[in-house]
Amino acid sequence: MNVYDFHVRQMNGKELDLSVYRGNVLLIVNTASKCGFTPQFEDLEKLFQKYRDHGFMVLGFPCNQFHEQDPESNDKIAEFCRYNYGVTFPMLAKTNVKGPQTEPLFRYLTNARGFSGFDPDHPLTEKLQEILSSEDPHYAENPEIKWNFTKFVIDREGEAAARYEPTASMREIESCIKELL
After folding, report:
1. Which letter, b or e, does each residue of 100-112 get, where b requires 16 or more Cβ atoms within 10 Å of its Cβ?
2. DSSP secondary structure string, 45-82?
3. Which Pfam families match (predicted)?
4. How many structural domains does the chain have?
5. 65 falls in which pLDDT band (50, 70, 90)?
6. Cβ-based neighbours of 152, under 8 Å, separated by 6 or more
7. CATH number, domain at 10?
């Protein structure tokens, strides 16, 4: 099993077979419009523009599971991303990325690549750890997505090659992508 075995919902409600991206390097990210990490949309779009002609695709999955930071409809989310950050990469339907209703794609991804911690040098790491440990003192022990803008790099064979938490540097992510391209 790999990423190409999954189907997801597009913002218009239609199903998308991820096998259409077979042979590409993918960056799959859960997003939110009202989050401290929301400005990462700009960096994601830059990565997409820089490498799309080399077989690279970004797929954004809005999620409202982390302190309700993406409460709007799919249409409003798409409009926000286009208008504020010039997003042209595909944004899919709002998705659950953790808990009992987790989208099967994200269950697969988190089982393939578990949580390995936040960047200790990032200014938001301490706040994230405080929030998460107040909700679950053992949060770091399970593979679930911890916050918005968790990224999974998928190689050309559809395998989860890497997982990056929202505090990871875009330089590190770009380096991984370049290596796979």
Report:
1. eebbebbbbbbeb
2. HHHHHHHGGGTEEEEEEE--TTTT---S-HHHHHHHHH
3. GSHPx (PF00255)
4. 1
5. very high
6. 26, 27, 28, 29, 109, 113, 160, 162, 163, 164
7. 3.40.30.10
Structural tokens at position 115: 């949580």
Q: Name the residue range of residue 128's domain.
A: 3-180
Q: Give the H/E segment covering residue 180.
A: helix 170-180
Tokens of 18: 């991820």
- Count CB atoms within 10 A of the CB of residue 86: 12
Active-site positions read 35
Dihedral of the CA atoms 76, 78, 83, 86 (nearest 10)? 170
**pLDDT digit string (tens) for 83-105?**
999 999 999 999 999 999 999 99
Euclidean distance between CA atoms 33 and 48, whole angstroms: 19
Length of the chain (residues): 181
